[in-house]
Hints:
This protein is an alpha+beta fold. The chain folds into two domains: 166 residues, Immunoglobulin-like (Sandwich), CATH 2.60.40; 34 residues. It is built from seven helices and eight strands, in the order E-E-E-H-H-H-E-E-E-H-E-E-H-H-H. The strands form two sheets. Strands 3, 4, 5, 7 and 8 form a five-stranded antiparallel β-sheet that branches. The mean pLDDT is 91. Pfam families: DUF6084.
Amino acid sequence: MPDLDFAIEDVTAVDGSLTPLLEFGLRVEEADGRDIDTIALSCQIMIEAVRRPYAASEKEALLDLFGTPERWGTSLKTMLWTHAAMVVPGFEGTTTVKLAVPTSFDLSMAPTKYFFALENGDVPLTFQFSGTVFYRDSAGALMTERISWSKEARFRLPVSVWSELMDRHYPDGAWLCLRRDVFDRLYRYKARRAVPTWETVVDELLEKASAEAVP
């Protein structure tokens, strides 16, 4: 049975893609130098939030996810970011391929909230691999084996790479998804007051809420 090892070597933001896309340089090695026909690879990517420090402003931005810092001893946990899959072409010994990972700027999703809250540094990631490897035995017969989920690789994704990718696709903007009934109320508020832009509507409501909160 092939003995596969995986390592993430680098990451790049893909230019010209319709949606935000990161490509991770993935090195795959077969320890015994066995010929590999192909690999149908699945990958689960986890954010290990406990493996980095946080500035005070980042902790404030993460209140929605983890609560106040006093609770972080129990609330700050590893979370699932996303899944990815690819077919690794045949190789002997070692190969390097690009693992494409679509990303989202949907701020209703916990991973996006997490990335958005970070100002600098990097994000500790764990890639957990599974799938099927196709190889030849000593007689040349095609064999298959499952890849155990115990196969992992760690990588630290620079926050700047994610931020620059989102700035490229959504310059000076962000997405906010609302229930239709809430949007209808907001739309009617905007129309009744003849407010020119959505930014002005939100600014007006925030200023009103802040004024009411002052004792």
